[in-house]
Amino acid sequence: MTLANEILMLLRANKKYSKEVSLYEPIGVDKDGETVSLLDVIEMENKETLETIILKQDIKELYEVFDSCLKDNEKTIIGMRYGLHGGREYTQREIADLMGISRSYVSRLEKKALERLRTELKRNGI
């Protein structure tokens, strides 16, 4: 027996015990009855992971701009107004009462803070 034949026989024997799986091999069906391959599942998981990473990065960049360009009272007003600190959204009247200032002053500070955020976000290309 030649060396080439021995190698070929060895490869064929090992193939029986191989754990290789085709990425295109069907592994099941989805809720619509469509065939799902391993590649479909891997792509979906990676896509979700990539989207999560991008979202976290975007949130971090937004927070950095929020934290760096606003004054403390503006941060408080924007945070309370849009539910950034615990989820509850306060009205301008509620914020005014809690901070001991007029509602019109809260309105002016909110408008000024939002404009500053817009300007800074545009400047940073966000």
From TrEMBL:
Pfam families: Sigma70_r4 (PF04545). Residues 90-111 form the HTH cro/C1-type domain. CDD domains: Sigma70_r4 (cd06171). Coiled coil: none annotated. InterPro entries: Cro/C1-type_HTH, RNA_pol_sigma-70_dom, RNA_pol_sigma70, RNA_pol_sigma70_r4, RNA_pol_sigma_r3/r4-like, Sigma-70_RNA_pol_init_factors. Belongs to the sigma-70 factor family. This is HTH cro/C1-type domain-containing protein. It comes from Lacrimispora amygdalina. It comes from the Bacteria.
